[in-house]
Specification:
Elements: H1 4-42, H2 47-64, H3 66-83, H4 86-92, H5 97-138, H6 142-147, E1 153-156, E2 161-165, E3 167-169, E4 174-184, E5 187-200, E6 205-215, E7 222-231, H7 243-248, H8 252-265, H9 270-298, H10 306-333, H11 338-361
Antiparallel strand pairs: 1-2, 2-4, 3-4, 4-5, 5-6, 6-7
Helix pairs in contact: 1-2, 1-3, 1-5, 2-5, 3-9, 3-10, 5-9, 8-9, 9-10, 9-11, 10-11
Length: 362
């Protein structure tokens, strides 16, 4: 049963977090518009596409910086409670510090569930819309310019088949510089190449342009050529897209299925997918850890006032985001287990939260 004090703190917790989002998101949009307005005007981007892009941008931006927004909002209103000696009054009435923390944890639970559901269903769609807009209107070289060296996609689609594409256009569903190699007992059986390959959703086929097939024979190779050729392949459209791009745009169920499929193929990029999957669960958990740290840091009335608490809070929040990004990249680029790398920031800051909480109780 929630008491009046619980309702008061919980209301301040959720309201301050909402206000923090409403304050920072428009700032992010203004900065983004100022950076991209020339490109938008140059490419004559339709207003409806711009509006849809900034909806996706808002979701993408809020999800990415959610830990900072949450941490600063808790620091802000808890510091105000401390400066107004409200916390001293609450604790003097016989309420323990642990009991005082309860409405904060309830608020963290509400936000965690919300962020968890967003990460499962809403953020993947917004990530796709956000990236599609940038590839279509804001990059001179399209997908290839955007992805740089990471554009090249190699896939093992079966025990003896491998595909490669240089780049992929998400709007036209077209891949460029396509090749497929099939081996038999470690020897090349045939190789198919095409300058581009386009997906046909109506009949689930692919159309290859500047098609060439080289069949390796004992006495000599046989070569087939055609300016255009339709075919059915046993790989999915997602297999042609860049690694990070496709992982970020899949909902939870599709991402799990995709990871299972890649594991069965022995994909060397499996850690990239696992980092995206584990972060869907680790980011909501960080709400509890950051809430406890924020309360422990800001519940004491300091001589420097709210400024000191905010300075400490900003430093800790950015440290958390920094370590989260660093360990994520390490998991993708090295042999560190993805689960350990993703959860390590939460573990480290969880230990810090316990230490600060024990000090705050004293």
């Amino acid at each position: 049963m929630l008491t009046i004090i619980d309702k008061y703190i919980l209301k301040r917790y959720l309201a301050t977090f909402a206000v923090m989002l409403l304050l920072f998101i428009p700032i992010g949009i203004v900065i983004d518009v100022s950076e991209k307005i020339n490109k938008m005007l140059e490419n004559k981007v339709p207003f409806i596409d711009v509006a849809i892009y900034y909806y996706h941008f808002t979701v993408y931006f809020a999800n990415m910086l959610f830990p900072i927004f949450l941490f600063l909002s808790v620091i802000w209103f808890t510091s105000k409670l401390a400066n107004n000696t409200e916390i001293i009054a609450i604790l003097s009435s016989g309420i323990s510090f642990t009991r005082f923390l309860r409405p904060y944890l309830i608020g963290a639970s509400i936000i965690s569930v919300f962020v968890l559901l967003m990460g499962f269903f809403i953020v993947p769609a917004s990530s796709e819309g956000f990236n599609n807009f940038r590839y279509t209107y804001l990059r001179t070289g399209g997908m290839q310019d955007m992805m740089g060296d990471n554009t090249d996609v190699y896939r093992q689609i079966s025990d003896n088949e491998f595909i490669y594409v240089n780049s992929f256009n998400t709007e036209t569903k077209t891949a460029f510089n396509f090749s497929l190699e099939k081996f038999k007992k470690d020897k090349l059986e045939y190789k198919i190449t095409a300058s581009r390959i386009k997906w046909n959703p109506k009949d689930s086929t692919y159309t290859m342009y500047d098609y060439t097939k080289r069949i390796v024979g004992v006495e000599g190779d046989k070569i087939e050529k055609a300016p255009e050729k339709k075919a059915v392949f046993n790989f999915d459209l997602e297999d042609l897209t860049p690694v990070v791009y496709i992982a970020e745009t899949l909902s939870l169920g599709k991402l799990n299925a995709f990871i299972d499929k890649e594991k069965s193929r022995g994909s060397s990029n499996i850690n990239v997918y696992l980092v995206v999957l584990y972060k869907k669960f680790s980011i909501p958990v960080s709400a509890f850890i950051l809430t406890v740290i924020a309360v422990a840091v800001s519940s004491m009335k300091r001589r420097g006032g709210m400024g000191v608490n905010l300075a400490i809070g900003i430093a800790l929040a950015f440290a958390f985001v920094f370590f989260d990004k660093i360990f994520g990249v390490l998991a993708e680029k090295s042999s560190i287990p993805a689960m350990l790398a993703v959860w390590l920031p939460n573990i480290a800051f969880g230990i810090l939260a316990i230490y600060l909480l024990r000090n705050a109780k004293r």
